[in-house]
């Protein structure tokens, strides 16, 4: 199988290595020539220091060579770059090519998920799927057992992705619930910012457990209102990814949240993380989706207050704790 991986960050590199080692012939594209030239010289992923790229894998900054003649295209750019990247690849996308989004985010203006953006740009007939779940690149490149879900409205596309990605260390389930997968994938990053803030404020494991529990309630409420399935939100792309992102030392969202909880301004926290912090870019869109579907998202609301209205994280927690009394099962 010939695969083009578009985006040479930590996730693009990790999946390119995985697919190459699965026996695919992989071409990895990065958008900055100097980044690719540095990786060609060093042989390693610049976002995953020490992780060596298979010599058989081709590295390029020339988009057409990464796209033409491929059976599968993997979109692994930051969510804020998905639309521009989809516009760039549009002239090259071939009729039966399968496109897999592995990015996590909601577009602020359109409120579209990643697959929604791809279909918006490439047309509803595009064979689009998504791969998501509890999957930190740092652990995937070490071959640590990881389990994810491949989704597409066309189950044949989901099964194609399952066959391409699955190996003895990387187990892939299939699903047709793209909405549930992508809402879970995007909103877990916003809740993880709150979890990180809790860590930065010095709060405890009880607090973290409460944020994860009430966080999946918020994510599920919105996803189900949008047509997602409960099984998806209690599954890998929902609860699974939320747990790993809220608790892992690898999480950029948790790390940025922690720095904010320790007093850094959001922009400074993001600069210090040196990698994409997707929760910041999806927070406003998540809130807008909550309003559109009339779903209450109190934690996400407070994350927006801290990120964009200079509310002290400690006051944000206080606001959540002092909300009106409610029943958990109402
Ligand atoms: N890293 C992980 O563990 C992981 C796991 C699952 C999903 N993801 C998702 O993968 C997506 C990619 O993130 P990442 O973790 O690889 O990011 P990263 O921070 O590791 O690297 C970002 C990469 O994007 C590139 N980039 C920046 N602007 C760009 C643009 N306009 N066009 C093309 N490329 C651009 C940068 O050069 C860099 O190589 C995100 O949506 C993320 O949520 C990441
Ligand atoms: O590092 P994060 O917070 O972007 O999370 C990476 C992956 O989405 C974990 O599944």
What are the salient characteristics of this protein?
binds nicotinamide-adenine-dinucleotide, Rossmann fold, N-(1-d-carboxylethyl)-l-norvaline Dehydrogenase, domain 2, 2 domains, globular, binds SN-glycerol-3-phosphate, G3P_DH_NAD-dep_N, 330 residues, lipid biosynthesis, eight-stranded mixed β-sheet, nucleotide-binding, 8 strands, alpha/beta, G3P_DH_NAD-dep
Walk me through what this model shows:
With 330 residues, the protein is α/β, with parallel strands linked by helices. It is 52% helix and 12% strand. It has 16 helices and eight strands. Strand 5, helix 5 and strand 6 form a beta-alpha-beta unit. The mean pLDDT is 97. Bound molecules: nicotinamide-adenine-dinucleotide and SN-glycerol-3-phosphate. The site of nicotinamide-adenine-dinucleotide (NAD) has 27 residues, from helix 1. InterPro entries: 6-PGluconate_DH-like_C_sf (IPR008927), 6PGD_dom2 (IPR013328), G3P_DH_NAD-dep (IPR006168), G3P_DH_NAD-dep_C (IPR006109), G3P_DH_NAD-dep_N (IPR011128), NAD(P)-bd_dom_sf (IPR036291). Its main location: cytoplasm.
Helix and strand topology:
Blueprint: E1 2-6, H1 10-21, E2 25-29, H2 33-42, E3 58-60, H3 63-67, E4 72-75, H4 82-89, E5 98-101, H5 114-122, E6 127-132, H6 137-140, E7 146-151, H7 155-165, E8 170-175, H8 178-200, H9 205-225, H10 230-233, H11 236-247, H12 252-261, H13 266-273, H14 278-292, H15 298-308, H16 313-321
Parallel strand pairs: 1-2, 1-4, 2-3, 4-5, 5-6, 7-8
Antiparallel strand pairs: 6-7
Bound molecules: nicotinamide-adenine-dinucleotide and SN-glycerol-3-phosphate.
